[in-house]
Structure formats: structure tokens, C-alpha cells
Write a structure and sequence with these properties.
Helix content: over 70%
Shape: elongated
Number of helices: 8
Radius of gyration: 24 Å
Largest sheet: none
Strand content: under 5%
Order of helices and strands: HHHHHHHH
Distance between the termini: 20 Å
Number of strands: 0
Length: about 220
């Protein structure tokens, strides 16, 4: 059975990249699809060279492939959102929330509450911004591949920042009222846990895409 050479796979990837398919994970799926179709053609009687078969294939299917770009992005967003929620609503995350709640509650009771609130909020913002900065710095400095899945996770940034703003506004009232101190601790623990789950998923997703992309090409 005819199999494409690594150089052929790389040629397809380069062609798609030059066609403005900038995200490596989307190209990875497209390259796999195109390579399989071309192999099928060459294994069912088309004796021309890879380049001739590829040229005709792209004339017939390029528009459809590029139109599927948006469809794949939506699928990726849905998949990552499900993974994020599944990880957050797990036993491990529950235990992390309990630990964070205990630590935060202890700090509020033993140190200046307003100061601790500000320290925690700044820490939350840092945990959100730092990974994004590192990702885009790596892209610019080391010319790493862009991954749609990673950048789609960034849409949660605005949600986090708005949520933290709500915590900041309501937290003051909570802290002033001892009856709400535990609730404040729980809310902040939930936010911290969600951010850590978010970061972990981002790192794992990046490693998975990078591994699959390197093996494909």
C-alpha cells in the first residue's frame, strides 16, 4: 500500500500554512485528511506523482478545506470547554478547594483582612496574565507554532477578570461582616482552583498538540 513520504507531508503542511492556515493544530487535522485522501487516490489507480495528484486535489477541495477552518475552531472550543469543566468538577479539584479555603480563611482571621484580600486578588490576576504572556513571548522570541486550542482557552480570560472584579467589589462587604468571611474564602478558593485547572489544561493541551504535530511532520 502506498504511503506518502515525510517530505510530502511537510509539503502539504507548508502549502496550508502559506494558505493562511496559521494554527498548527488545525493544519495538523487538515494535513492528515489531505494525506489520507491522496494516498487513497494513488492506491486506487492514479499513477501520477504526488505533486500532480496533490495539485488536482487542492484545485477540487481547497475551498472546502479552508471553509472547515471555522468549524474546527468551534469544535476545539467545545472540546476544551468540556475538558475544563470536567477537570474542575472532580474529586481532586474539590480537595484543592478545601485546602485553599482553609488557608485563605486562616489568613483572613490572623492577618489584616483588607490586605489579604488585595494580595489574593493580585495573585489571581497574575496567574491569569502570566501564562498568556509566556505563550505569546515564546511565539515571538522562538517562532513557536500557534495553536488554536491554546488561544481559544484565552477567551476564558475575560470571564476570569470580570469575576475577579466582582469578588473585589463584594469582598469588602464580606470581610466587614464576619458572618460572610467563610463565604469569601470559599469564593476565592473556587477562583484559584479554576485558574489552576485552566493553566494545567493549557499546558497539557500545548504539549499534546506539539507532540502530535511533530510526529505528523
Amino acid at each position: 500500500m502506498m504511503r506518502l513520504e515525510k517530505e510530502d507531508i511537510q509539503f502539504i503542511d507548508t502549502y496550508l500554512e502559506n494558505s493562511d492556515v496559521v494554527f498548527a493544530d488545525i493544519r495538523m487535522e487538515m494535513v492528515d485528511h489531505v494525506a489520507s485522501d491522496i494516498e487513497d487516490r494513488m492506491n486506487t489507480g492514479d499513477t501520477r506523482s504526488f505533486y500532480d495528484v496533490f495539485k488536482d486535489y487542492m484545485l477540487e477541495n481547497k475551498k472546502v478545506l479552508l471553509d472547515n477552518n471555522d468549524k474546527f475552531v468551534k469544535q476545539t472550543t467545545k472540546k476544551l470547554s468540556n475538558q475544563l469543566l470536567k477537570s474542575f468538577f472532580s474529586i481532586k479539584s474539590f480537595l484543592v478547594v478545601v485546602v485553599f479555603t482553609s488557608i485563605i480563611y486562616f489568613c483572613f482571621n490572623n492577618y489584616d483582612s483588607e490586605l489579604m484580600k488585595n494580595v489574593l486578588l493580585i495573585s489571581m490576576v497574575f496567574l491569569i496574565i502570566a501564562p498568556a504572556f509566556c505563550y505569546f513571548f515564546a511565539l515571538k522570541k522562538f517562532s513557536k507554532n500557534r495553536f488554536s486550542g491554546i488561544e481559544r482557552l484565552g477567551f476564558f480570560f475575560s470571564f476570569f477578570l470580570q469575576f475577579i472584579n466582582i469578588v473585589n467589589i463584594t469582598g469588602t462587604n464580606f470581610i466587614k461582616n464576619p458572618n460572610y468571611l467563610l463565604l469569601t474564602s470559599i469564593v476565592m478558593a473556587l477562583v484559584f482552583t479554576f485558574i489552576l485547572v485552566f493553566i494545567r489544561l493549557g499546558v497539557l493541551t500545548f504539549k499534546d498538540y506539539q507532540y502530535r504535530y511533530n510526529n505528523l511532520c
